[in-house]
Amino acid sequence: MARKRPKLIKERVPTPERPVGERVKDFGEVNLGYTFELAVKEAERCLQCPAEYAPCIKGCPVHINIPAFIGKLVEHRDDPDKAVEEALRIIWNDNILPAITGRVCPQEDQCEGVCVVGKVGTAVNIGKLERFVADYARERGIDRKLCESELKRVEPIGARVAVVGAGPAGLTCASELAKLGYDVTIYEALHEPGGVLAYGIPGFRLPREVLNCELDRMKELGVDVKTNYIVGRTVTIEDLLNEYDAVFIGTGAGTPKLLNIPGILLDRIYSANEFLTRINLMKAYKFPEYDTPIAVGKKVIVIGAGNTAMDAARSALRLGCDVTIAYRRGREDMSARIEEIEHAEEEGVKFEFFLTPVEFIGDENGKVKAVKFEKMKPLDERDSRGKRKIVGTGEYVTLEAETVIIAIGLEPNRILLEESGFKAKADGTLVVDENLMTSIPGVFAGGDAIRGEATVILAMGDGKRAAKAIHEYVQAKRIS
Amino acid sequence: MYKITAKEELDVRDFFMEVEAPHVAKAWKPGQFVVLLIHEKGERIPMSIYYADKETGRIGMFIRRHGKTSFDLWDNFQVGDSLYAVAGPLGKPIEVKYYGNVVFVSDAVCGQAENYSTLKAMKEAGNYTISIQTFEDRAHSYPEKFLAKPVADEHYLTTEDGSRGIKGHYLDVLKELIEKDRVDMVFGGGKLGSLKKLAELTKEYGIPTIVTVRQIMVDGTGMCGSCRILYDGEIKFACRDGPMFDAHKVDWDDVIRRDSRFVREQEIAKKHYLESKGVI
Questions:
Q1: Which residue in B48, B69, B179, B199 has the most C-beta neighbors within 10 A?
Q2: What ipTM did this prediction achieve?
Q3: pTM recorded for the entire structure
């Protein structure tokens, strides 16, 4: 019998969002996500492209079988719990952190960007469906049950792996290895696991409870997380190699790039990392209930236009500031997710384009009071990332700023590099082979530690690939 | 987790605390520090090391009752209680080797701890060790057993008002020693203003000088850049590239100014805490 072709519905089912006036007053989540009914309605828009063709699967860095999980929601529409369990099982084959990726992936550049429905209407809202499955499963305890049943199949294989860094790459690698029966220990420098998910991404995008629940899964999987260990200082890579069969490095890109211009040492100029760490990890927005302070003036300028810049801008807004994002290129060159840019604009963040900072100007107390910018103009030429090249015009403008947040990018922290003598590129990223093994045998790496600055999902993809490679490496070592 | 194994008053303001932190005790080297969080709502505070005992897995620290966290720690944490987090060791170790006559100068709480721990290592490396410890007055000076005497071949205690030991500052004693040509290498810690003067003094005589540049930090691992300083014309992070630097290459005026960035917030936190305790 021929399959009935679903009717094409051009417009996506919207997800409810908290009203702007309410949400800018706190750090609670902005998007409220689908209910089961809405999720099924959206799922019905999926054309169910066959897996061997489906562009969304190819567009996904970890190749989740997207039509299959979406199909389960429609197939079991009369039994929501079953629908979600089946969908989650499919997602987990490739992605252990769907509640997170459903929220932070740049879907418009990945799965949704190539969705066939998107060619005639708006793409299926894959991100929000993924998030729905994870959220519903968490709220009903479906994820825990599924995890337990999967764990029953795990046989300990008597080998140990150390994972350095409890961010997206490390968590994924650790959970994949645990599922293969490895005894895994994660070493984390900070006092809480999560990496950039904990210190970088604000609660209004990724609520802390959601993250904590995903982190609890590590415990369920039997992964030991040792916090307050700075690998390279507390223990060396050599120490770890003596104790474990293999090591995975997922230390991310943790060092902020700062502008090398006059006035960089003035008070109230923060790296986005410092600003966001104070707020997210240390909860400075609850000061003095929490001990870590944040000092901001009314007028804030954020320099940069990536996701981190949007996060910093919207966090500052929630502290009651008047926020302007200043970007050296144009509107269409901004690298942030579209949803974040839209949310920032809705919430009242202002944008200034084609401005490059040349000097920070301070007052008599050493506090920043203004930023001097050179006006830029775009050229017809494009750079390697497809962005328009820009040149200075020789014209300058000075904007008032009582606080400046620099969000121009990150690079790997060199602590490990200096300690262990890895082969690395000039920017500090570790050199790895096709199996993600570094120049030190038995030591693998992935995520921003090898990519410089990429996405959560790419880091997770590396973690998964590395787990597979580590498994092969350990097996081979045992035979020889 | 990180159990408090000893706690003792040093003077009317400072106290000594020993904590179980085997991962730190095992790996610590002179020049390195730790970051403490006293409870889940706490801030991450950098702390110098008085000693790190590999055998017992314990570290000793000198702490000043200065802000909210240190008051809270003194008032509410007793021997047997645990701290929420002890991370470390952090920072770059200094080079422990034979220099000849090595002096350590200090005039504040963290510096007094470093005075002992640094000279202990330097003495073991065969150096002739000279300790100069400056306190404001007798009431703000430490008991004998917490001075750096056991690791110093020569020990000087000064108070600024002369109420105990020599009257004056470590700068005065050091200058005399230098003029007698008895100093090959200087290490220092404590007040930033004094370290600036120390840098000026030893630069004049061409004596290598390495000091602790204490700056406000968040993570302490090189992730936030809060502790950035200008060093030899370049931006360095005190937590990762230091905290001990060549004193002659540090831009001291910026370092001193950046140390007071959160004075207003520190006062708010202290007031909030003291009010909650019904003290004020």
A1: B48
A2: 0.92
A3: 0.92
